[in-house]
Amino acid sequence: MAKEGLGLEITELRLGLPGDNYSEISIWGSKNKKRVLSDMMTSSSLNTENENGVVSSAEDESLPVVKSQAVGWPPVCSYRRKKNNEEASKAIGYVKVSMDGVPYLRKIDLGSSNSYNNLATVLENLFGCIGLGVAKEGKKCEYINIIIYEDKDRDWMLVGDVPWQMFKESCKRLRIVKRSDATGFGLQRD
Amino acid sequence: MNYFPDEVIEHVFDFVTSHKDRNAISLVCKSWYKIERYSRQKVFIGNCYAINPERLLRRFPCLKSLTLKGKPHFADFNLVPHEWGGFVLPWIEALARSRVGLEELRLKRMVVTDESLELLSRSFVNFKSLVLVSCEGFTTDGLASIAANCRHLRDLDLQENEIDDHRGQWLSCFPDTCTTLVTLNFACLEGETNLVALERLVARSPNLKSLKLNRAVPLDALARLMVCAPQIVDLGVGSYENDPDSESYLKLKAAIKKCTLLRSLSGFLEAAPHCLSAFHPICHNLTSLNLSYAAEIHGSHLIKLIQHCKKLQRLWILDSIGDKGLEVVASTCKELQELRVFPSDLLGGGNTAVTEEGLVAISAGCPKLHSILYFCQQMTNAALVTVAKNCPNFIRFRLCILEPNKPDHVTSQPLDEGFGAIVKACKSLRRLSLSGLLTDQVFLYIGMYANQLEMLSIAFAGDTDKGMLYVLNGCKKMKKLEIRDSPFGDTALLADVSKYETMRSLWMSSCEVTLSGCKRLAQKAPWLNVEIINENDNNRMEENGHEGRQKVDKLYLYRTVVGTRMDAPPFVWIL
User: Fold this and answer.
1) pLDDT tens series, chain B, 575 aa
2) Which of A31, A106, B12, B27 has its CA 20 to 30 A from that of B217?
3) Does residue A17 sit at the B interface (CB-CB below 8 Å)?
4) How far apart are CA B273 and CA B206, in angstroms?
5) ipTM
6) Separate counts of helices (H) and strands (E) for chain A
7) Per DSSP, what are the bridge partners of residue B271?
8) Chain A contacts in chain B segment 244-263 (CB below 8 A)
9) Which is nearest to B561 in space by CA: B54, B83, B95?
10) Which residue of A has its CA nearest to B376?
11) What would the 3-class secondary structure string for B124-145 be?
């Protein structure tokens, strides 16, 4: 990473068609069978702030992370790789959910949820309430209850602002509050 | 030696146990060949398609122990489609038909089915030992047959297999009369375990030396198990989460202290690191420690544990140990012979876990080191030169720099000189894996110096065919060569066809070899199976007018005495 900008790229040995500038690897085969390195390898877009090392934008959320890496690289056997992935996703795991007015808390497996809508549904079922929703940007918030979460920095955030994956990783606990009470948490929604 | 009766010679041969040596004595003369084959009990077959069971049994009718390997090594990294082959059933069927007295079966990278396990369990009265490594295709139902039917079962060792866990009661299928177990390893099973059946089994197995539990065995069960088995030598801990003050934990601590024969520790698939201190009392006896699946053990708890392990010979660890942690290993584990450092973050998060500094520290502190597998973020030629100087005794040297084509991070040079120093200094080197930015030069060094090299793994390396030619011409003992994503083509492939008769196999994927090159090779060498694995376009290769020059995606060739195999799937084209 430290060598960027020194113009050494021209001396670099790389595999690829002339003019190819580290285009993405096609895992499922293509007309030109060469495997070229993805821009994960040299670009600084791969840094720890990116969720899961996925370089591309929101449209790629549905694609597996493996898109930005060569098949079978690094050479870790598939059994170990599976265990590694399980560890990574296990880290998300169960979080506590409290609801205002309910004397006990619940726990949900955030790791097994796959979208905000899914989360809202799960929570609705859990607390037997309706009108639970994830506030969407720009739209008028019509729900009675809104969902907020405590992040790694111990701030209470409104669920729905950030991409799903980013939310999953930073969410430590959830709370369902009445919208009318929300102003106490510094939320400016209407 | 002609004046000794055969029985005497046979008796002498009993002392010759290694496969290499037995193979050698069988070549001395006809009479030795005959004596050797009737007295041979253990056979190792490195490629299950190089020979067939009928010929095996014709030559070695007194076979008791068989080791078989199936898929090529790169299958571990998902480069070989699942249905490629390596089926064990035909072997078991043939062995069963011949009524050979099979006692041990060891399989690696093979497809094993419940049907084959069932047949195995019913066909060999004296069957004792089943070891399955990186296999797939079976479920716990198959294990149940083995448990139920193998009356003298000694070893059931399942290492890193993909097993469909039906959450059945396979453990309770061991009859109450089964008291002969020495090894029980089911760490790779995902499902629930019948703890009562397990405890009863362990309690009635006084010879049990190796016990490796899966994730579903919690701490309190572990405590009870260890009370039943203080003679344990090799322990794989399943789940290790607990509140340190609880009764189970205290019971465990007491039980562990009594395990004075414990030498090998692994597992900790789920761990509460602060409880590790329960193991400190026996750490000074440990010779082997595998924490490579213990993602939750790191930092000071890990370091404290290692500091107690002064006699360690083998250490498998995650790179979360860091360079500083490796320095602790270097200063504590003076008996260390084998080290493996695995990546904890496969998604390329960029956390600089271990670097060349850790490797240098280990090489400096551990004079007995002979095998290393090291995944790291970066490397330098200078570091490799130092490592070569510190450790000229490497037998296995496998370095994986996570980012392909990465040069020396200080000088931006290729790592040719560094690896060159390794092969030059390590005269006993048998296995080498390369990574980082490499030109043809490194292969020149390898061809020149790596005289004992048997296995070489190349990825994203080299410039021209010359690279591969240096290796093929220079490494006289080469057995397995596997290459991916490197610019070697037909010229190198075809230069010396007879070379492949001296090798077990060659793998080339995403290189420059063409279909016509492979065809020419197959023509010149009918004793080779030349397989083209082409998952995507089955028929395109044949129909296309330019087929000759079309690049082959995956080539796998191996010597064989039994010709083309009959069980190849449609996407494998054997030329």
Assistant:
1) 567 888 898 899 989 989 989 999 999 999 899 989 999 999 999 999 999 999 999 999 999 999 999 999 999 999 999 899 999 999 999 999 998 999 999 999 999 999 999 999 999 999 999 999 999 999 999 999 999 999 999 999 999 999 988 876 899 999 999 999 999 999 999 888 899 999 999 999 999 999 999 988 888 899 999 999 999 999 999 888 766 667 888 889 999 999 999 999 999 988 877 778 899 999 999 999 999 998 888 788 899 999 999 999 999 999 999 999 999 999 999 999 999 999 988 765 555 589 999 999 999 999 999 999 999 999 999 999 999 999 999 999 999 999 999 999 999 999 999 999 999 999 999 999 999 999 999 999 999 999 999 999 999 999 999 999 999 999 999 999 999 999 999 999 999 999 999 999 999 999 999 999 999 999 999 999 999 998 765 555 555 555 578 889 999 999 999 999 999 998 898 88
2) A106
3) no
4) 30
5) 0.88
6) 3, 6
7) B240
8) none
9) B54
10) A74
11) CCCCCEEEEECCEEEEHHHHHH
Q: Which of A13, A14, A54 would best serve as a mutation to test chain B binding (most B beta carbons within 10 A)?
A: A13
Cβ burial, residue B532 (10 Å; 0-12/13-18/19+): buried
Scanning the structure block, which residue is given the tokens 């739209």?
A139
Q: Using CB atoms and an 8 Å cut-off, which of residues 294-313 of chain B contact chain A?
A: 295
Interface size between A and B, measured as CB pairs under 8 A: 104
> Which of these, B117, B249, B104, B239, lies nearest to B173 by C-alpha position?
B117
Among B330, B339, B210, smallest CA distance to B267 is for B210
**Tokens for B128?**
């004792």
Neighbours of B230 (CB within 10 A): 14
d(CA A142, CA A131): 8
Q: Please, which residues 42-81 of chain A have a Cβ atom closer than 8 Å to chain B?
A: 46-48, 52-53, 65, 68-81
- Dmax (CA) for chain A in angstroms is 66
E-strand ranges in B81-178 read 104-108, 129-133, 136-139, 155-159, 162-164
Bond into A74 cis (ω within 30): yes
Q: Which of A25, A28, A33, A56 to mutate to test the interface with B (most CBs of B within 10 A)?
A: A33
Cα nearest neighbour of A73 on chain B:
B77
List the beta bridge partners of residue B338. B314, B371
| Å between B429 CA and nearest CA of chain A | 21
Residue of B nearest to A1 (CA): B409
As beta bridge partners, residue A25 has none
- How far is Cα of residue B390 from the mean position of the Cα atoms in its chain? 26
Q: Does A138 touch chain B (CB under 8 A)?
A: no
Subunit contact A53:B347, Cβ cutoff 8 A: yes
A23 lies within 8 A of chain B by CB: no
CB contact under 8 A, A75 and B459: yes
